[in-house]
Amino acid sequence: MSRPLNILHLHSSFNLGGKEARAVRLMNAFGDRAKHVVVSGVEGAYGAREAISTGVRYEIAQDPPPLTGKPSVARYEAIAKFMARFDLVLTYNWGAIDGVMARRVFAKNMPPVIHHEDGFNADEANRLNPVRNIYRRMALPAAHALVVPSRVLERVALGTWRQPQDRVHRISNGIDVAAYAKKPDPRAIPGFRRLPGHVVVGTLAGLREVKDLPMLVRAIGGMKARTQLVIVGEGPERQAILDTVANMGLEQTVLLPGFLPDPHRYIGHFDIFALSSRSEQQPICVMEAMAAGLSVVAPPVGDVRAMVASVNVDFIAKDWNPIHLRDQLDRLAAHPDARREIGKLNRQRARELFDEQAMIAAYAALYAQAVGRPGALG
Length: 378
Fold this sequence. Notes:
This protein is 34% helix and 15% strand. It is an alpha/beta fold. It is globular, with a radius of gyration of 21 Å. 48% of the residues are buried.
């Protein structure tokens, strides 16, 4: 057997979210063909390690150089020296862009770097930061490739960041679609009990400002239909969400069970999947909802309108607005037959577009090509 690829992962954060879930899924799929060292730009943010399969060779870097801070040749040099011992460096999002810049400043004898951009936080939800745009234009030419999951980000990369088309790779996210066809585990959501006569609206999200989950709570509170809301996830905005729940008197119908692994075990308990984010690209949670046979209500963020089945497009709100979101939720809540038909077509579309084997093959080919070892990752 050939020597496993030695891969360094520089993450903006390694708590479990969409990009981290994908990175871990690839680590698990590559198995013993690779070994990994993981760095998080946020100290202590390593929650995603719990999803790494037993037997995958990985370690959390000890005393790595800081990934963020003021531009500094000395800091770039420290990052470059750390990177130099690996076959391949993978950098993720703005919080790790200095790994790319370090390779630009200290290019000699450096391994290839592939940068991944998956979206933006609240500070760039409505307008991209012009200083960051300039910095990316300076850094990204040093990357072997830039990978994005969505058409929206592809347009940003080619236009705003002025990257050449041959170095921009749009690789769709993917999931184990078949797993979501199974019946949900009745005990998978702690504290959940379906209330008689209620429609269950659910969402999966890190409890962060950009997800704007208080807006979803306000939308639910204004619905005509009797509705339960389940918000699966954890994060710094938990108290803000609970405060909104209390202010609207929804304590008996809103549940925040925290982070729960393996969404295929519980997402089928929802009747409708809702998204309230100010910024998304190609959200994995929407794929999971589609694979589970759910209808989706969301603002028109990222590629969501292009992801769902055509009959579901009418239930994507025209803009980011709690009243518009409420109205679409009420329409679906009142028509269970329509929900089921839309869910059936969403599941079919998920099978056609979002099966993870295509995603794994595309990443394996790109990474192996970057190091000049075709087929090294399967």
